[in-house]
Every structure is written in C-alpha cells, then in structure tokens.
Amino acid sequence: MSDSDDLDLDGGDAAESGGSSKKRSGGLGNLLPTILKFAAIGIGALIFIVTVSVITYSIMNKGGKSQTVITDPYSPYVGKRPEYAMYTQIGSVTTRTKDNSSVSVDMIIGYDLNDQAASQELFGRQYELRDFIRRYFTSKSSAELGPDREDELKNEIREQLNTRFLDTARARIILFNKLDVMDTF
Prior knowledge:
single chain, alpha+beta, 2 domains
C-alpha cells in the first residue's frame, strides 16, 4: 500500500462503484458550524449587554462617590461613631398630650462638631425650640410616647427640625435626658 491509496472505511462498496457515490448529508460535519454560529451569537450578545450596562452605570454614577448614606448613628454598619456638639439649653418642657396625660421632656440636639453657624442658630432659636417641643408633644397621645417608640420619636423630631424649623443648622442626633409620661386620673 502506498501513501496515496485511499482507506476503504465503507466496506469496499464505494471504491468498486467507480467513485460515483455522493457523501451522505448531515452528521457532525454540518452540525458543527451551526453550533459555532449560535455560540458566537451568544458571546456577541453577552459582550453587547455588558458593554451597555457598564456605559449606563458610568453615566448614572457620573464617576462620583457612592450615594448610599447611613443616617442611623446606632447602625451596626458604621465603623466609628461620629462625634457631635450638643445643644442642651432647651431645658425641661412639661405639657399635656392630646389624651390629657402629662409629659415632661428634657431634650438634647446633636449637631456637627465644628459648625459654629449651627450653634448660633440653635442658640438664637432657643425659645422657638421650646415652643416646637411643646407643640410636638401636645399633638401626641401617651401611647405614641411609649419607650418602645422612642427611636421613632427621635427620628421624627430630627426630620421636622431639619425640614421645617432650622435654616442652616442640621440636627444629626436627638437625645432625651428625660422623657416622662404620666397618666392623669
């Protein structure tokens, strides 16, 4: 046998018929290009989606810092708790709730440590703050002032101070030295 002789894998029928046989269509030879074509389309679509996502994210983010801000100072995700300057000149405020219970509050407002403008604004609005606290607790019932709702009260007071009451100063934390609710009989 020489190198130019064809191997007869079909059992000799094709060689004896004079080489006029046609190859069978189908099989792995025709299936492989179809698989490769769909794989290439899938990879191209994946690359396109990733590219569009990255471009969209960079446009939305504009290369700035993260927009996630943790506002709860007692959150376990805050590494070092921030230090605040404390405004304590409000004093004790005693008033009635809307269900005729008596409430006595001594509140402290924490603001940014080196914010002199906030210190001046809080000092200048001392009597307005006392009135705000009186009106706030007058609008609540004794059930709304329970110890289990204290965090909600602090957040609500802080939000109202920052959005409706203070101009340049920002209350960062609210603390109660005293929050006594006494039912009257």
